[in-house]
Amino acid sequence: DRIPDFAKALINSALANNTPMIVAYTDENGAPNLSMRGSTQVYSDTQLSMWVRHANGGMANTLKKNPNMTLMYRDPPGRATLTIQGKAHFETSDDVRNRVFELMPEVEQAHDWGRNGAALLIDVERLSGNTPRGGVRMERKS
Question: Is the CB of residue 104 less than 8 Å from the CB of residue 39?
Answer without folding.
Answer: yes
